[in-house]
Amino acid sequence: MKLSEELIYRGFRAETTIENPEDLDTRENKKFYWGADPSADSLTIGNLAALMMCACFVRHGYEPVLLVGGATGQIGDPKDNGERDLKPLSEVEHNKACIREQIERVINAGDGNVRDFETPGLTMVDNYDWFKDMNYLAFLREVGKTFSMTQLLDRQFVQKRIGDGGAGISYAEFSYTLIQGYDFLHLYRKYGVDLQLCGADQYGNCTTGIHLIRRLEDGEADVWSTPLVIDPVTGRKFGKSEGNAIWLAASDNGGGNYTSIFDFYQFWLNQPDESVGYLIKIYTLLSKEEIEDILKRHFEKPELRLAQKALAFGATSVVHGRDNAEAVENLVQTLFNRDTDFAEFSEDELTEFAAYLPVVAKGAALVDVLTSAGLAESKKKAREFIMQGAVSVNGVKVTKEIDVNQTAIVKKGKNKFAIVK
Predict the structure, then answer these.
(1) What residue spans define the domains of the chain?
(2) pLDDT digits over 99-125, tens only?
(3) 3-state secondary structure at position 222
(4) How far apart are the C-alpha atoms of 267 and 244, rounded to whole Å?
(5) Does pLDDT of 74 surpass 50?
(6) Contact, 158 vs 152, CB < 8 A?
(7) How far apart are the first and last CA of the chain?
(8) 280, 295 in Cβ contact below 8 A?
(9) What is the four-CA torsion angle of 164, 166, 169, 175, rounded to 10 degrees?
(10) Whole-prediction pTM value?
(11) 22, 229 contact by CB (below 8 A)
């Protein structure tokens, strides 16, 4: 399958300056860049969709320049509804280090195993390196002078912020698009990059770079964007940060922005039939033939949830490696097997499980086990779960407060587990 065909098949096409997608197959200069701001110490599955598009280009011979926005991250990508809080520079530095590793891991994903990070052609850059010593007047003369206020005021995010009922916009965020545009110009000059990849919500900012390259270098450049992934059930954007983000980090880097490998796998496993068909194309490396075969068998016997299992395994392999995906797949099969006797697990088996499930020391009250393991947000909620019969210890439902003095597996609801040992 050609690059253009695979991009369209997987749904990686939204607004673009490239009229004929087949031009990507024969493009002479095969270099692109994609960037992420360090607004948190982990990327989300929303970012992952764009990274999977980048990986698609890489598989077809393109060389990536992957940008971590140490400069733009100090301002924050403008939202539609208000100013972002400025982060301390130390936090920006910490976030940069965390997400660089995630970007490298995903972009290098092959058949589910991570290849050598020193893959030829992989370039990681930080826009702070070229902005830290830039003279403000020089920036205004070179960049600011090339844009009219009409062009900038027409940007969608600006219109939403300054229109009726808008929250207003600071000069810093108003200038964000110029800074991002200069990134493209700089990478065009230094690395010969003439293609930027982005999510559909960044398309307007990305065209700023095209304008600068044309005006200042008399060059041609393009932007290719991928649609935002929308949950068909809730209508919300995947990876949205307001309380429901699924993070790529498997452990806490200090900001509390993480999703355990077990919960990450479970998220995909619990996707509804109406969305699994397009999610499996975006978030796995399965071929078209493999996907169509899986979906055919899935809809013949949907109760087996074959597509969800393939999606969960594939997405987890890309982000956390094949070994972790296999281990969590086996753990899920064990925990949800009706014939499993939780009381019969050996100490060694529980130690293996503990790599993927929260662990609490035995001797604690069940209420404390639930809160410490993150299965309940408060002791009040923990007591409610117990009284409602939503909690079991070693497979036995518990409806009153007890101490858990033995080694045990505690389950809350349908798919939340913790180990007491």
Answers:
(1) 3-226, 261-340, 356-420
(2) 988 988 888 775 443 344 344 467 889
(3) strand
(4) 11
(5) yes
(6) yes
(7) 51
(8) yes
(9) -70
(10) 0.89
(11) no
Regarding the domain with residue range 3-226, which homologous superfamily does it belong to in the CATH classification? Answer: HUPs (3.40.50.620)
Which residues on adjacent β-strands are paired with residue 391?
398, 412
Pairing of strands 364-365, 403-404: antiparallel
Q: Which long-range contacts (CB under 8 A, 24 or more apart) does 276-280 make?
A: 276/307, 276/308, 276/311, 277/307, 278/11, 279/229, 279/311, 280/307, 280/310, 280/311, 280/314
In this predicted structure, the answer to whether residue 55 has a pLDDT above a threshold of 70 is yes
Architecture of domain 261-340: Orthogonal Bundle (1.10)
> Contact, 100 vs 68, CB < 8 A?
yes
Q: Is the pLDDT of residue 158 over 80?
A: no
Architecture label for domain 356-420: Roll (3.10)
Question: In 3D, which of 390, 416, 378, 386 has the Cα closest to residue 403?
Answer: 386
Question: 195 Cβ partners below 8 Å, 6+ apart?
Answer: 27, 29, 31, 32, 33, 221, 222, 223, 224
Measured distance CA(85)–CA(336) in Å, rounded: 43
Query: What's the token pair of residue 409?
Result: 């597996």
Is-contact 87 93, C-beta < 8 A?
Answer: no
pLDDT of 235-265, one tens digit each?
777 755 445 689 999 999 998 999 999 999 9
pLDDT of 130 higher than 60: yes
φ, ψ of residue 393 to 5 degrees: the values are -125, 120
